[in-house]
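Quick start: read one record
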Amino acid sequence: MFFALRDLRSARWRFVLITGVVLMLSVLVAGLLGLTAGLADQSVSALRALGSDGSGFVLPADDKGPVDLDRAALTDDQVATVLAEDPSAVPVGLARINLDNGTETGVSAVAVGLAGPVGSVTPPAAGEVLVTTGVDDEVGAGASQLSVGGGTLAVAGHVGDLWHSHTPVVVTDLDTWRELAPRGGAATTMAVQADPVSDAAVDGSGLALVDSDGLVGALPSHRAENSSLTTMTYMLLAVTALVVGAFFAVWGMQRRRDVAVLKALGASTAAVVRDSVGQAAIVLAVGIGGGVGIAALFGLAVGGAVPFVVSAGTTLVPAALLAVLGLAGAAVSLRPVVTADPNSALGAAR
């Protein structure tokens, strides 16, 4: 590593440029992953809460499979069919409504039957609602009642930070939900235990059984949003590998004569390769560490102003991916180092 460190000092501006580019790419990748996770939370956190206990869900289906949650509406007969298979099944309602508290706030009403909780969501008493952080931000914390559809509902408590389709959530009982969303049918979906209900049991009834991931995937806006952002992330990761590889390929060609001198002095090819990879690792460690750190600080600074999640999945995971891809790109560019001829350094080519 002696030659690598000496080269970093003597050609510092070249490596400042390379490190700066890696840093900016790291900020973009980590920032995009944090934003993707934040947007996902504001899209499906309520659905994830419903499926947090591993329950299955029965949705209405057409010839293409389960219908989108935006169109899902179970009939009374379908609810009865599911209850016949699993008497412990709990109907769940999802609908978008507007509050009448002078804010014209659009919220998502999430309702579960009074038979019991679904996942981490437990319904309040009849005619009451549980509010979330997003509702507090809109109507003010400490509100004792909400005006909806010309009537009022007493606020019975708080259920944390739940969102559905980028709208804050209020949790209510199923009968109240049916009054607020009369076009929503008897329920949107049914939470069931996986063992009593199988695909064969609901086959032919216009129903489909999905797991918690399938419930999240039934939200079309989330599918489109998540697939677009994920594609952008993969493209940035590929660009990172290409850019790092290109930088070190040019650097390898520029130092080919120096490597030839090292080999003429007795350095083995393996030692020179370790030296080159170690140099790339130093540049990547500084650039990636700085970039991921900047993205994490940004996420913490913006707080609730921007949907951004700072977690191991948005910091450590992209750092590891960028390091692996960066080293892979650097390894591919080692050909000038490996093929450097010590005879050229001794003047044999003259």
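DSSP finds 13 helices and eleven strands in the chain.
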